[in-house]
Amino acid sequence: MGQVVQYIQSYLDSNQTPGAAGNIFWMLVYIMLVFTGLSIAVIAMNWLERKILAHMQVRLGPMRVGPHGLLQPIADAIKLLLKEDIMPAEADGAIFWCAPLIVVLAAFTVFVVVPFGPTHAITDMNIGILFMLGVSSLSVLGIVMAGWASNSHYPLMGALRSSAQMISYEVAMGLAVISAILMTSLNASGTGTLSMIGIVEAQQAQGEWFIFKFFPLGLIAFFIFAVAMVAETNRAPFDLAEAESELTAGFHTEYSGFRWSLFFLAEYSAMIAVSSIAVTLWLGGWLRPFPHWLGGTTWDLIFSFVPGATFLFLAAITFFNVIRMPKHPYFRIQTIGLAGFAVALAIIGLILFVPDVRVRVQDIFWFTAKVAGFMYLYIWYRGTFPRYRFDQLMKIGWKVLLPVGLGVLLLTAGVGLVQQNLWHQ
Amino acid sequence: MGAMLHITTLHYLVLGAALFLLGVIGVLTRRNVVIVMMAIELILNAVNLNLIAFSRMWGGLHGQVFAIFIITDAAAEAAVGLGILIAFFRNKETINIDEVNLLKW
Amino acid sequence: MAPVATPFFFYLFAAIMLIGGIAVITRKNPVHSALALIVTLLAQASLYLMLYAPFVAGVQIILYAGGIMVLFLFVIMLVSIDRSMRERQFNSQWVAGIIAATALGGLLIAVYTKGTNIFPEHALPVIESDNTQKVATLLYGQYMFSFEIASLLLLVAIIGAVVMAKKRI
Asked: Which of C29, C40, C73, C140 best tests the A interface by mutation, with the highest count of A CBs <10 A?
C-alpha cells in the first residue's frame, strides 16, 4: 500500500507532463481524469445555465427534480437517452451518423494540450495553440454535414449560416492569438513558443498576465478573442443559427435523443475549450492572482487557503438554503439531500486545507476558477444581450474585429520590437 | 518481414507514390468535376508527403517550408477552381466533365 | 520522448490513407468522397507528426482539413444535384485513363524497385522542440521572397474567386 502511494506521489511530483515522459499509463489516467472532469463540468453547466438565466430573469428555474433542481441534469440525460432515435426519410445515413461524432471528437480532442498546471497536461505539444485552433476548426465540418444530411431546408440554412459564422470568427480569433504569441517572445533569447505550458511560463517569467501587457494592446486583443470565441461557439448573442424563434433549431433540428445530446455536449465542451485558450493566453493560466506584486511565501500561503475557503463558502450558502427550505413533510427528502450536498462540499473544503493537498491543488484550482468565470460570462451574455441579425454578425466579424485585430497585431509587434531593442542596448 | 518492420524513407515514398497514383486515376476517370478536384488535392498531398519524408532524411527543414508553400498554393487553387465551377454550373446546370466541351470543334 | 511503436502507427495511418484515397475516387456521392478525403488528410497530418514535422501537421489540419474541405463541402452543397448522382460515374475516356495510370504505376514501381539503395537511413535525429522556430527562421529568412509571392498569390486568388462567383460584375 505504501508502495502504491509512493508510486502515485512520484508521478504527482514529476516535472514533466505524461506525454513528455512517455508514460502511457499515466497518460491514460490523465485522459480519464480530464474526460470525467469535463463531463461533470458539462452537467454542472447545464444546471448552472438554467438557474442563473432564471435568476437573471427574476424567476426560479428548475426547483422540483432535486433540491433546487440539482438533479435536473440527470433527469435531462435520462430523458435524452430514452428518446426515440429518428432519422429523416431521405437523409443520408452514413453522414447523418458521422456528423455528431465529428463535432464531439473535435470538441474533446482539444483537451489533450490544455494545461491545468505546469506538469498537469496530458501532453505538451510544442505546437499546442496551433493544434487547439486547428482541431476546433474541424467542428465546422461536422456542422455542415449535419445540416446537409438532414435533407430539410431549415437545418441546411442553419448549418450554412453557422459554419459561415464560425469560419469568419476563426480569422479574428487567430489574429488575437498571434498577438498573444508575439508577447511570449519578449525574453532574453528572443524566441517565443507555441506550447500552452510555455505561454503560461512566459507570463510567469515576464511577471504580468498578457492581458495587462503593453496596456491597452493586451486588453484589446483579449477583447477581440472574447467576442470571437462567443461567436465561434454559436452562443448568444450570436446564436441566430440555432435560436428557436428563428430557424426551429438550426442544424440539429432533425436530431433527437442521444444524437442531440452529443451536439449539446460538444457545444459546452467547445465553450470550455475556447475559454481555456483565453485563460491560458491572457489570464495567466494556472498562476494565482498578483504573482509578482504580492509575491513571497506569506502571500503564497494566504492564497493557498483560497480553494478550501471557496468550498467552505459554497457549503455555507448551501446550509443557508437548507435552513430556508419549506418545513412541509413533502420536502423532507429534498432537505436531507441538500444537507448531504452541503456536508459533501464542506468535507471537500476541509480536505483542501490539508497542507499536502493544498500545495498540489493550487494550479488546478486557479485554472478551473478562471474558466468558471468565463462560463458565468457566457451565461450572463445569454441573459443580457439581444440577438444579432446574421448580416450584422458577419459585418462585425469581418469589418470590425478583423481590422482591429490586424491593428493590434502590428502595434504589438512594433512595441515589442522597440522594447527588445531597448533591452538589448 | 524484418525489412518491413523498420520504417525507412522508402516506405513513405512508396505510400506517396500510391496516393499519387490514386489521385491520377481519379482525375482521369471520374465524371463529377468536384471529385476530380478532390483527386487533385490527393495528388498535392502525395507530393507533400514525399517532400516531408525527404526533409526528414536530409535533416534540413527546406522540405517542410516547401510543403507549407504547397498547402498555401492548394488553398488558392481550390478557391479559384471552385469559383470557376460555380460560374460554369450557373451557365450549364451540370457538373459533368464530359459536357465541358464548348470549345470543341 | 522516444518514438513508440513506429511500424504499427505507420501501417495504421498508411492503411487509413489508402482506404480513404480509394474511397475518394470511387464513391458516387460527392459528400462521401469529401468525408473520405478529410479522413485521409487527418491521417496524413499524423504521418507528418511521425516524420518530426509538427508545424506542417498543424498547418495541414487548420488549412486543409478545416479550411479547404469546408470550401469543398459548401460548393458540393451548392452544385450537387441528385441527377448527377444517379448517372454513370466514370467519364467517357476512362479506358485511356486506366491505361495511362497503369503506365504511370509501372514506371513508379520500376523506379522504386531499382532505386531501393539510393535513399540513406534517417541518420540525423531532428530535435522536435524548436521545429516551429526553425521553420520560421527559414521562412522569413531564406525564403522571404517566396513568402511574399505566396501572399500575392493568395490575394489574387481571393479577388479571382470573388469575381468568378459573382452574378454580375
From this structure: C73
